[in-house]
Amino acid sequence: MRWKCTCAYDGTDYCGWQSQPNRNTIQDAIEAQLLRVFKHPVRIHGGGRTDAGVHAHGQVFHFAADWNYGADKLRLAINVCLAPTIRILNVEPVNPDFHARYSAHWKCYHYHFQLQPLDPFAVRYRWQIPQLSIDRMQTSAQLLVGTHDFRRFGNKIMPEENTTKTIRSADIIPQNDHFVFSVVGSGYLYHMVRIMMGVLVASSLHDPSMVDQLLQGQTPPVPIVPAPPQGLFLEWIDYNTH
Predict the structure, then answer these.
(1) How far apart are CA 3 and CA 99, in angstroms?
(2) Contact (Cβ atoms closer than 8 angstroms) between residue 94 and residue 2
(3) In the chain, N or C terminus with fewer CB closer than 10 Å?
(4) C-alpha distances out from residue 30 to 6, 9, 52, 100, Å
(5) Strand runs (DSSP E) across the chain, as ranges?
(6) From the CB of residue 125, how many other CB atoms can be counted at a distance below 10 Å?
(7) For residue 16, is it left (φ>0), alpha (ψ between -120 and 50) or beta?
(8) 212's torsion region: left (phi>0), alpha (psi -120 to 50) or beta?
């Protein structure tokens, strides 16, 4: 039987989602708990590979295992010994052809930042950046929307990797005391959202045409530095076709 799980986690103290030898990862923590539940190793497959220090409100993974006590009891069984920084929010049975990564149509990331100095309770979840123009950031963000070659917005790109992605929306959204860069796309390159955020900041501070330049494959006027990981959240993954 195949199970689809939605989970949330604080990635501050983890080396990212994906399992790594001798490293503390979200995948390893969940698989260790599944071993306790099922008494044999269970491999999980995630919908997105978040980096070290990146968080999630709506990460999705799937696995195959026999369980006869219902989805909610399975959720409780997985949660019981997980660290409090990882929580399984929902468990449901799915068709055998469902895949948390390859069945996804859209993924939404939020990047949280603020212009005033951070208080100690926000430093793990936001980026504090210099005063800049939010209006210019929003104008630049709109240039990301559409289907483009995002090669200049990725790191560690493999030779065979498809760098053409579709961005459905990209907006700077004001919150009570900070801002959120919200982006919905069909897929992302390694570090792509963090690089997008870094480009938006640089475009506001230096050159508003930077997004266009990068999409056209040009060298930007200033070096592009990815935004730090702590402000980034995998918000949700959509498996519908709309």
Answers:
(1) 10
(2) yes
(3) C
(4) 12, 11, 16, 15
(5) 2-9, 45-46, 55-64, 86-94, 106-114, 127-128, 146-149, 164-174, 179-185, 232-238
(6) 17
(7) left
(8) alpha
Longest Cα–Cα distance of the chain, Å, equals 60
For 20-69, what is each residue's pLDDT tens digit? 888 899 999 999 999 999 999 999 999 999 999 999 999 999 999 999 99
- Tell me if 116 sits within 8 A of 44, measured CB to CB: no
Name the token pair of 42: 């269970």
User: Mind telling me the catalytic residues?
Assistant: 51
Condensed to tens digits (0 to 9), the pLDDT of residues 89-122 reads 999 999 999 999 999 999 999 999 999 888 899 9
Cβ-based neighbours of 159, under 8 Å, separated by 6 or more = none
Whether residue 54 contacts residue 234, with contact meaning beta carbons closer than 8 Å, is answered with yes
